[in-house]
């Protein structure tokens, strides 16, 4: 009595489908609240003045403004799509984090699907062939079936190639001696049967009369593949270990054995199938990489795959400050100032943002001859230095301002002494040494040894 | 090969020589070619202002901030443009404060000598309506109310004159 087993992969597939359905929320009966709708829309919109940060996750003023607009449009009764369209009509399609599903960007969506489909189809084909037997073409063993000459020749050629593949794999060490001998015996048996059938088949038309190529193993007994081979006459496949396992290698007269493909390991011997498998695996991997990069590219540090932001507030703050510093180093002073300002909006006492923005304002005001801007900058620097006297950057900036603008070398020296006491980077000390030396000399204070140049 | 390189180099020189100078830093905006969004609000001096629809003359809408270096760079050029077109009345300026407090913006405009209307934009409503990402951002609106150009780098009076002339030529 054959017992029908429920395949494991079927259970896995069912579990996957159930998880996807439940996770997609299509079974949820309660409609989203306006706040949930707003957050969902804001999560797919790109902050206009940030790099790959969603409007929902950004504290930049532009993101705050877009959030207010989204909520206002929702209150006016606009649909989600209408709101996206409204913003796209102003910022362009880049305001949406995901690429649009039309035009060339559609390829970004289609390629993973196509790649995945090709991979699945190739894997299915491979598994089907492996299960149904490695030999292509009609089932020659089916009772009453009479294959034509072309089919027989096709099968003969396949078996010859298969034998050659087995040789190559055995020599490369990819095939165990037992498997190799079993395969060889089976293929030779099948080959003899096909040859016998070919001897009795009607002669083909002259144009189709194609036999094995010159030098074909089946025509050359010297190559070890005689038309009526004797395994005993074969070269020993495992030097020094003839007839391993004491098997009876005498060929059976009739190919009544089950197909070779019923054994998983020998089935992998076909080079063509191996390439098929490799191609399928490569396609699947490529599709997976594209899909993962698509879904993972917009995640923040600490953000989970489900979109929940688990990064702490301090992590987000540090990230924003890093981004601002990068922009400042790249010469994008305006955008850097915006980010520092956004930090100060939420954290008015952040001494790093105060010091950096104060210094930017002072420099901008100095180059543009704007006294009010320099005032603002100096006020921020004083506040930063007061909040954290150990912040060497604030001390250095404020000291420079006191020297350059207020002609207060004594005050500048006080700030520079704080700066030097806080163990600043040597490169920064070297860079600021001329200004500091000037302050010490004007104040009549001996120049410290570390500033001696 | 040498002949091919020579021909290509000559073609490149010819193309570059016949292009207009790249002083105008225009960038893409979906608003270009479309009607200007409604512009209305309170100015820095507390009065109400709304841009007529259609404006009836070229209007330069400039988003700025007092803390923005490039804005300061272009400030005198905007004053120059306004001055040059004040007599003819064919073009005018309109400024919108971008992410700045009113007192700083007021002081900045006063220092600059800007006498045109300057709208405060609390909450950035106008900035979103125009799709502004950062200051300075400048839109040129034609008399019929269509946006004809969007610029993000510091502009000069010559840049704006060039855009107005181009728009006039396309209308003719």
What structural keywords apply?
heterodimer, A: 453 residues, mainly alpha, 16 helices, 0% strand, B: 172 residues, alpha/beta, five-stranded mixed beta sheet, two-stranded antiparallel ribbon, elongated
List the helices and strands and how they pair.
The complex is a heterodimer of chains A (453) and B (172).
Chain A: H1 8-24, H2 34-43, H3 61-75, H4 80-91, H5 106-132, H6 149-171, H7 177-200, H8 264-267, H9 271-296, H10 313-329, H11 333-346, H12 351-367, H13 371-387, H14 392-404, H15 409-421, H16 426-443
Chain B: H1 2-18, E1 40-42, E2 48-50, E3 58-64, H2 69-86, E4 91-97, H3 102-112, E5 118-119, H4 125-130, E6 137-141, E7 147-151, H5 157-171
Parallel strand pairs in B: 3-4, 4-5
Antiparallel strand pairs in B: 1-2, 3-6, 6-7
Short overview:
With 453 residues, chain A is mainly alpha-helical.
Work out the largest interface and the residue count of each chain: A-B, 32 and 32 residues
| Rg from alpha-carbon coordinates of chain B | 18 Å
Summing up helix and strand content along with how strands pair, one would put the structural category of chain A as: mainly alpha
**Percentage of β-strand residues of chain A:** under 5%
Report the portion of residues of chain B in β strands. 15-25%
Biggest sheet overview of chain B? 5 strands, mixed
Structural class of chain B, by secondary structure, is alpha/beta
Average pLDDT reading of chain A: 75
The ordered string of helix (H) and strand (E) elements of chain B is HEEEHEHEHEEH
Distance between the termini of chain B: 46 Å
Helix content of chain B: 25-40%
Q: Quaternary arrangement of the chains shown? A: heterodimer
Instruction: Please state the overall shape of chain A, judged from the principal axes of the Cα atoms.
Output: elongated
Fraction of helical residues of chain A: 55-70%
Quick check: average pLDDT of chain B? 90
Question: How many runs of DSSP E, i.e. beta strands of chain A?
Answer: 0
């Amino acid at each position: 009595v054959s017992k029908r087993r429920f395949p494991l992969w079927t259970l896995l597939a069912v579990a996957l489908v159930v998880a996807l359905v439940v996770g997609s929320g299509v079974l949820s009966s309660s409609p989203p609240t306006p706040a949930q709708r707003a957050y969902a829309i804001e999560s797919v919109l790109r902050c206009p003045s940030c790099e790959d940060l969603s409007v929902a996750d950004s504290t930049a003023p532009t993101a705050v403004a877009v959030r207010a607009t989204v909520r206002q449009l929702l209150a006016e009764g606009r649909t989600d799509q209408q709101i996206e369209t409204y913003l796209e009509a102003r910022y362009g399609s880049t305001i949406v984090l995901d690429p649009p599903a039309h035009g060339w960007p559609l390829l970004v969506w289609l390629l993973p699907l196509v790649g995945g489909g090709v991979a699945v189809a190739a894997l299915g084909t491979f598994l089907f062939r492996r299960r149904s037997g490695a030999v292509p073409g009609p089932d020659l063993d089916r009772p009453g079936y009479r294959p034509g000459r072309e089919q027989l020749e096709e099968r003969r050629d396949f078996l010859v190639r298969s034998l050659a593949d087995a040789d190559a794999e055995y020599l490369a060490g990819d095939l165990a001696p037992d498997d190799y001998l079993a395969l060889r015996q089976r293929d030779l048996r099948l080959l003899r049967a096909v040859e016998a059938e070919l001897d009795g088949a009607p002669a083909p038309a002259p144009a189709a009369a194609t036999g094995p190529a010159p030098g074909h193993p089946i025509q050359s007994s010297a190559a070890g593949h005689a038309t009526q081979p004797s395994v005993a006459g074969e070269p020993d496949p495992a030097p020094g270990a003839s007839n391993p396992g004491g098997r009876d290698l005498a060929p059976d007269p009739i190919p009544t054995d089950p197909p070779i493909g019923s054994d998983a390991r020998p089935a992998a011997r076909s080079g063509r199938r191996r390439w098929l498998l490799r191609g399928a695996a490569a396609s699947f991997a490529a599709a997976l990489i594209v899909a993962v990069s698509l879904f993972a590219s917009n995640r923040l540090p600490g953000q989970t795959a489900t979109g929940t932001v688990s990064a702490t507030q301090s992590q987000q703050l540090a990230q924003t400050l890093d981004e601002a510093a990068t922009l400042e180093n790249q010469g994008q002073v305006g955008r850097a100032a915006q980010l520092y300002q956004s930090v100060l909006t939420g954290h008015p006492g952040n001494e790093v943002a105060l010091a950096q923005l104060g210094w930017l304002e002072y420099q901008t005001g100095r180059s543009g001859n704007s006294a009010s801007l320099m005032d603002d900058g100096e006020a921020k620097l004083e506040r930063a230095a007061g909040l954290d006297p150990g912040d060497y950057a604030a001390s250095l900036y404020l000291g420079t301002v006191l020297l350059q603008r207020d002609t207060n070398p004594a005050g500048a020296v006080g700030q520079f002494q704080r700066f030097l006491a806080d163990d600043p980077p040597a490169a920064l000390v070297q860079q600021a040494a001329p200004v500091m030396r000037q302050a010490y000399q004007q104040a009549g204070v001996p120049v410290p040894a570390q500033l001696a140049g | 090969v040498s002949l091919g390189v020579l021909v290509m180099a000559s073609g490149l020189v010819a193309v570059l020589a016949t292009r207009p100078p790249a002083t105008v830093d225009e960038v893409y905006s979906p608003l270009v070619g479309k009607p200007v969004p409604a512009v209305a609000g309170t100015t820095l001096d507390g009065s109400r202002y709304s841009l007529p629809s259609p404006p009836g003359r070229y209007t330069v809408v400039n988003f700025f901030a007092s803390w923005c270096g490039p804005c300061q760079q272009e400030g005198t050029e905007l004053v120059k443009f306004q001055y040059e077109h004040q007599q003819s009345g064919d073009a005018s300026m309109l400024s919108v404060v971008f992410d700045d407090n009113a007192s700083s913006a007021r002081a900045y405009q006063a220092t600059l000598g800007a006498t045109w209307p300057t709208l405060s934009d609390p909450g950035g409503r106008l900035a979103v309506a125009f799709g502004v990402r950062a200051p300075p951002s400048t839109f040129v609106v034609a008399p019929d109310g269509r946006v004809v150009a969007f610029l993000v780098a510091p502009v000069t009076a010559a840049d704006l004159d060039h855009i107005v002339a181009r728009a006039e030529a396309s209308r003719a």
